[in-house]
Design brief:
The structure is a single chain. The chain is an alpha/beta fold. The chain has a domain at 3-175 and 205-232 and 300-312: Rossmann fold (3-Layer(aba) Sandwich), CATH 3.40.50.720. It is built from eleven helices and 14 strands. The chain has helices at 12-23, 40-47, 85-106, 140-158, 180-188, 207-218, 237-248, 259-275, 286-291, 301-305, 314-325; strands at residues 3-7, 27-32, 51-55, 71-74, 110-114, 125-128, 163-168, 170-172, 192-195, 201-206, 226-230, 234-236, 254-257, 296-298. The chain is globular and about 55 Å long.
């Protein structure tokens, strides 16, 4: 039986990945900080011994306690629109360095790093491919992701460790309590607010399609040592949210926040928070606003060219997500 290590294994993306790998016959070792998952299937597999849990923080985890594995999927990381750059680098870059040393000792078949399309920045992209210029928005999360990507590439090549870098778009699906839960709830209550009329293209990816892309690229040698954008297609925000409303049988009613006003408000709010050194993330930031005030879509041709095919189309994926949050 082949073995895998997944960091952040009990989280939104990690738990979907863990459960799918169990179904495919892998023994899964999960590293995460909390004992339980919001995904009941994950908890069931832990109880059955099909997922073995190690509690700890990836930034300072003692990898000597881990068994050797065939694959490593590094999903865990600090994800936020607010915070100090040093904190993001400590967790996202420092934790990855720690895992790569472990990967080298295991002689793994592939090391997969989950990055983000945020490394490109928000400058009005339409179907940009992986060769596009990386100009991370002035945000510590985006900066830390790009620096970590570069380290994975350099370390992998210098130490002969096959790697894959995955850049998902806006991930949604069952058990997502970071964004989908709030978005779907607001749409259902007809209280969703959007910027610029929701007219700009964005990139959405259903979590089960993302999991398929992660597994497919990691376990196909012809896909190794590359970076991949992952999205299900490119739909503007208004059309996506309209499909959510239709799934609930409610009116697609959205309150518009004009782009210039949204940008100005975000700048003023961030300035206030920085002036008074408030640690809690603002309710509105330049990162969240600018993402929806310009086209933000990405080509997935490179991923498709190596043979990847998504499992669920957008309508079915939104329907499944809406049913879960209902």
């Amino acid at each position: 039986m082949e073995t895998v290590l997944i960091t952040g294994a009990n989280g939104f993306i990690g738990s979907h990945l863990s459960c799918e790998l169990v179904k495919r016959g892998f023994l899964v070792y999960g590293v995460h900080r909390s004992q339980r998952s919001k995904n009941p299937e994950y908890n069931k597999y832990v109880e059955e011994g099909k997922i073995k849990v190690f509690l700890g923080d990836v930034s300072n985890f003692d990898t000597s306690v881990l068994p050797k594995v065939d694959y490593i999927y590094h999903i865990a990381g600090k994800v936020s629109v607010w915070g100090k750059k040093e904190e993001f680098l400590k967790i996202n870059l420092g934790g990855t360095k720690n895992l790569l040393e472990y990967a080298k000792s295991c002689n793994v078949k592939c090391f997969t790093y989950l990055s983000s399309v945020a490394v490109y920045g928000f400058y009005g992209y339409k179907l940009i491919d992986e060769n596009g210029e990386k100009k991370p928005f002035n945000n510590p999360y985006s900066i830390s992701k790009l620096e970590t990507e570069n380290f994975v590439k350099e370390y992998g090549k210098n130490n002969n460790i096959p790697f894959v870098i995955i850049r998902p778009g806006n991930v949604y699906g069952e058990y997502d309590y970071t964004s989908s839960h709030e978005i779907y709830g607001r749409v259902k209550k007809e209280k969703m607010m959007i910027s610029a009329g929701g007219k700009y293209e964005s990139c959405w990816v259903y979590v089960k399609n993302l999991v398929e892309a992660i597994i497919f690229t990691s376990q196909n040698q012809k896909a190794h040592n590359q970076d991949y954008n992952v999205a299900d297609g490119n739909t503007n925000l208004k059309d996506y949210l309209t499909k959510v409303a239709n799934a609930y049988g409610v009116r697609p009613k959205f309150k518009n926040f004009p782009a210039p006003l949204a940008k100005l408000t975000a700048c003023l709010v961030e300035g206030f928070y920085k002036l008074f050194r408030i640690k809690k993330a603002p309710i509105i930031t330049r990162f969240t606003v600018y993402q929806n005030c310009a086209d933000y879509s990405f080509s997935t041709k490179k991923l498709e060219d190596v043979g990847y095919k998504k499992i669920y189309d957008e309508d079915e994926a939104i329907k499944r997500t809406a049913e879960y949050f209902n």
